[in-house]
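Subgroup meeting minutes
Present: P.N., E.W., G.H.
Scribe: E.W.

1. P.N. recapped why we're keeping a running log of single-chain structure predictions: easier to compare across weeks, and new members can see raw inputs and outputs side by side.
2. G.H. added today's entry (405 aa).
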Amino acid sequence: MPLYQYTARTVQGKTITGTTEALNQGAAARTLREQGLIPVSIAAGSTTGAKGRRTAGKGGRVKLEDLVVFSRMLAVMIRAGLPLLEVVNILAEQADKRRLKEVLKQVERSVQEGSSFTEALQKHPRVFNQFFISMVKAGEASGMLETILDLVATYLEKTASLQRKIRSAVTYPAVVGTFAMVMTFVLVWKVVPQFESIFSDMGGDLPLMTKITVGVSHFAQERYLLIFLGLAVLIVGTWQFKRTYRGKRVVDRIKLKLPVFGPLFLKVGVARFARTLSVLIRAGVNILSALEIVAHTSGSSLIEDAVNKTKTSIQGGETLAKPLVDSGIFPPMVTRMIDVGERTGALENMLGKVADFYEDQVDATVGMLMSLIEPLLIVFLGCVVGFIVISMFMPLFKMLELVSA
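Output recorded in log:
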């Protein structure tokens, strides 16, 4: 909440200074009068942190969670009857992120200079994407800005929740897999050579498992620079290839064909498509503009292409469902429900039901993956390390058998 510095007089005529928290200067003056003080001057100070300390705001990019809070508070204050300029000023003062604070102050100045709220937001596309701006524009045009902002906040909450689920499903196996690779490399590069010197003193023929491990160790020692260079080229090359039009589509097609993870990525894409289109239609955005926004926010180049073709087909007189069926991306249940929604005039509700269903499917799939991946990774790690350990000790066991005999 904004912090105001004040100068006031007591009933005895004594002048005092201090600070108080309030939504605006008027609220600060009322608070002082309730305390028996007569306000002389009230000036905006800095915002307070969670523990009452002043803070200039944290740096970093603006995340979905920040936009959720911004949308909710903007809707509440507008619904309470506060002027838009005052609301933006309050939110700028109490923003935690320095980047968001600066952007909101620029938005406030633009509105003061005569720009509409939508035009002011359009000057900051890195913070407010096309979806957000289109929803605000629809809210301003319909006079229901606070209602539209509530829809935006709900949508962003669900989007952020989907992103967290995908990260939790992908990050854990990636971290454990990387750790397993590093540990294996250290074993074959540093530990195996110590055993190899013992084997050379023993003489005799080594077991096949031991020969394989020693061969891998020699390759790692002699070609480690080539290995690291190859990995670096592979990572950078894949990243650069993915940035191209064709590369992005190739990578997205491979992602959808991955075992286990492929269906999960498809469910996330369908859920995002249905949720975004449903919210835009509910806000009163026309279908062609809504499809354009959905294409840019889909997160998948394959869905983006399908939606763009659908937009072109609709301009030519086709229904929404038919080109989606022809794309081959969307499951039959989705296209059937969209077709029913078009014919019954309940497209928005049908899309909402599709989004709810696939979001629940994502929850179930992520839960299944987390319970399945952990034991699989443990088994994989145990097999790799166990192979190395057994291969190193087999010659020692053989030597002990000869000695005991």
